[in-house]
Amino acid sequence: MKRDERNKAAELRKRGESMRDIATKLHVSKASVSLWVRDITLTPQQRTRLNRNGHSIDAIEKRRIKRIANTKKKYAAVMKEAGRDISSLSLHELWLIGIALYWGEGGKTHRGMARIANSDPAVIKIMMRFFREICNVPEEKFQGHVHTFSHLNAKKAETYWSGVSNIPVKQFYKTYVKQSIATKNKRDTLPYGTFQIYVCDTVLFYRIIGWIERVKDFGEVPRKL
Known about the structure:
Largest sheet: 4 strands, mixed
Distance between the termini: 60 Å
């Protein structure tokens, strides 16, 4: 059976049929057809006709790019629609979000301070709201710490994170600069490094840990009677 399909594919290809059309007619995969007819050379006239009918490499690439764009557009619409599910953020919700973020990203070993680091400015903004609006941390108790790389501009990073957190640069610890191993041509995925929020408050640290421990209790699956 395979030999018959292979022979038929070769015959159709010699007539100048596209691999896609051959695969459709024989009810086989395009990959199989490509393998079977790889040694068959089309005439210039046949190539011209296939190009004209949209089977050229350029045409295929254009279709691929269009398909990717349509897929992105589709999922962008899904994300936009999902965003409408959240119309506002209450203080109670902010409290729970802050607890969850600290649980996943915050420091839990240095008991004299609450601290959390991240490279995502949105996470830093949410956590600053959590500390200010939920924990009522005074502005003078905030300290920041930038971690960046030697090939990046440390001063620019400090200015950037100060703008994100609204913590004055004068309240930052000395920026930690790590020796960079990135090449000059490599794209920087962390152009401003990472930022760490510090609040030197032992009581606050234990309050947050207490909240986290309480949230853990709700992970138990209720037993069915």
